[in-house]
Design brief:
- Strand 5 (about 40-45) and strand 6 (about 50-55) form a beta hairpin.
- The longest helix is centred in the C-terminal third of the chain and has 19 residues, at about 160-175.
- This protein starts with a strand and ends in a 7-residue tail after the last helix.
- With about 210 residues, it is of the alpha+beta class.
- The strands form 2 sheets. It has a 4-stranded mixed sheet with strand order 6-5-1-7. The chain has a 3-stranded antiparallel sheet with strand order 2-4-3.
- The chain is globular.
- The relative contact order is 0.18.
- The chain is built from 10 helices and 7 strands.
């Protein structure tokens, strides 16, 4: 079974004292901006948010993405035989691309060309699989509720509260994508949910 994993991160500004300056503040794009920069990984075929991680605002989107990917792969069922990972320029680094391509060390541009050549069907999966969009923007859109939360309430009081909110949003958004009752999903063992989602036909995102 083949699976697509979209990974993306976005900045959630916050005025809390414990928040750290974002990279946009460091570069002068948004002076004095502080906040968080959560990262999310999801599968468009399953309509499932696979992993979320709440990060400080000064953490680059490219930091620890290999560890983040490995944690996602460790959660996948054994029936998954190949994975297509899609990211923006944050994933354009030697270690990450070499891991995705195998043990040989090549230039990132060479790795990208090889992936296009060897995984043409996976790269163009969006053309023959209606549930797979052409880009990984769905991952960024699924982080949008965090931005709405920030606009309504101003910010999170603690980092633990922000992390708990991210986990709950992941579960609820997955339930919505799968057209499941949110309360039933919250009361189900996560491991059982993964097996269930992997075995059932994916539901469209409505």
């Amino acid at each position: 079974t083949h699976l697509t994993i979209d990974i993306d991160a976005t900045i959630i500004p916050s005025g809390q004292k414990e928040c750290l300056p974002t990279y946009r503040a460091a570069t002068g794009q948004v002076p004095y901006e502080k906040g968080f920069q959560p990262m999310m990984g999801l599968s468009p075929e399953w309509g499932l948010i696979l992993h979320t991680e709440m990060r400080d605002g000064n953490v680059p989107a490219s930091q620890d993405i290999l560890r983040f990917l490995v944690e996602i792969l460790a959660m996948l069922p054994a029936s998954i035989t190949s994975v297509l990972v899609r990211m923006d320029s944050a994933g354009y680094q030697h270690e990450f691309m070499n891991y995705c391509n195998g043990p040989l060390r090549r230039r990132p541009g060479h790795n990208l060309a090889l992936r296009f050549f060897h995984y043409r069907d996976d790269t163009l999966r969006c053309l023959h699989h209606p549930l797979v969009p052409a880009t990984n923007n769905l991952a960024e859109r699924d982080i949008r509720p965090l931005k709405i939360k920030q606009k309504i309430s101003g910010s999170f009081r603690t980092k633990d509260g922000a992390r708990d909110f991210a986990v709950l949003r992941s579960v609820l958004e997955t339930a919505r994508k799968r057209q499941l009752n949110a309360l039933d999903v919250l009361g189900t063992n996560p491991s059982e949910l993964m097996v269930q989602f992997a075995s059932e036909a994916p539901a469209p995102d409505t």
